[in-house]
Design goal:
This protein has eight helices and eight strands; from the N terminus they run ββααβαββααβαααββ. With about 250 residues, the chain is an alpha+beta fold. It has a domain at about 10-80 and about 185-245: Gyrase A, domain 2, CATH 3.30.1360.170. The strands form three sheets. A four-stranded antiparallel sheet has the order 2-3-6-4. The protein is elongated and about 75 Å long. The structure holds flavin-adenine dinucleotide (FAD). Flavin-adenine dinucleotide binds next to α6.
Length: about 250
């Protein structure tokens, strides 16, 4: 049985800016396409493409963040693949609606008899807790396999094999624990990511989603430092990581 102890976050799509030739901006400094889209949108509002203050993209976006203007951040979208994340964690994640899109592994279609399980951060490092938890996951997985077998027998008369399996798996999944690993593609615009990160990096957030939020933040900060650089990651008293936003959007 595969036990996962941390999430895997992979960037699978980033914005591509196609600058309009008839409205050229006097860019200063290096920037990614996502950052340039936000700057372009901001400058359009005041027709300041000539960059009168000679600001770099990072300075320009920093100023917008400071002022709390969120809408120009809605034009740049980043798509992440999240793996090594539990079903209970994605249940919390998908509560973020505005600006988000999701596609998640289906437990009705996919066979979970060899599923991996995500060990909660609170269990990790304590040999007794870990051993008990692993045994419980093994028992749950065995229960799932048994339920699928029984249900396949019950629905033996259903001719369509794919449909029969789906009927069995959708009922058998009821015995799988919240810790079952899932995979999910999450797309969101920068404004939406910033809102989600602010909430889920906080010390009050559940430990696994906080750990996922930290991993997401690291990916997005590498991608677009001018859009996410004001977030700070720090260690809490219990030595786990949390984060705080520099410029809160009211
Ligand atoms: C520490 C913590 C504990 C939590 N505990 C619980 C819990 O016990 N039970 C529970 O059910 N949930 C819980 N939640 C989830 C929480 O209630 C929200 O569902 C989740 O954080 C998403 O926040 P949101 O609605 O602001 O986000 P989004 O859906 O991303 O929305 C962002 C913003 O857009 C606006 N918006 C979005 N949709 C609407 C709308 N329909 N109408 C008007 N404005 C809208 C709001 O301003 C909203 O803040 C918890 C969250 C956290 C961070």
């Amino acid at each position: 049985m595969l036990i996962l102890r941390e999430p895997r976050v992979t960037l699978i799509a980033r914005p591509e800016f196609v600058p309009p030739a008839h409205l050229p901006v006097e860019w200063k400094g290096e920037a990614s396409d996502g950052e340039r889209i936000a700057e372009f949108a901001g400058r359009l509002c005041y027709m300041s493409q000539h960059n009168p203050a000679g600001r770099t993209t990072a300075d320009y976006l920093g100023n917008i963040l400071r002022q709390g203007h969120g809408s120009v951040f809605e034009h740049a979208q980043y798509v992440l693949l999240l793996e090594g994340i539990s079903r209970s964690c994605t249940h919390e994640l998908v509560r973020h609606r505005a600006g988000f899109g999701y596609s998640q592994l289906s437990q009705r279609y996919v066979d979970e008899s060899t599923a991996a399980f995500v060990m909660p951060p609170a269990m990790q490092g304590d040999a007794e807790l870990e051993a008990t938890w692993i045994r419980q996951m093994e028992e749950a997985q065995a229960a799932y396999v048994e339920a699928v077998e029984q249900l396949m027998r019950r629905y033996a008369a259903v001719e369509d094999r794919v449909h029969r399996r789906k009927m069995a798996r959708e009922a058998a999944r009821s015995v799988l624990p919240n810790g079952t690993e899932t995979k999910i593609v999450v797309s969101a615009n920068v404004r939406a990511w910033r809102t989600m990160l602010e909430l889920r990096l906080g010390e009050g957030a559940e430990a696994e989603i906080r750990r996922v939020a930290v991993a997401i933040l690291r990916v997005l900060q590498r991608e677009a430092p001018a859009l996410f650089g004001d977030f700070e990651i720090y260690r809490m008293e219990d030595d786990t990581e949390a984060g705080r936003v520099g410029f809160h959007k009211v």
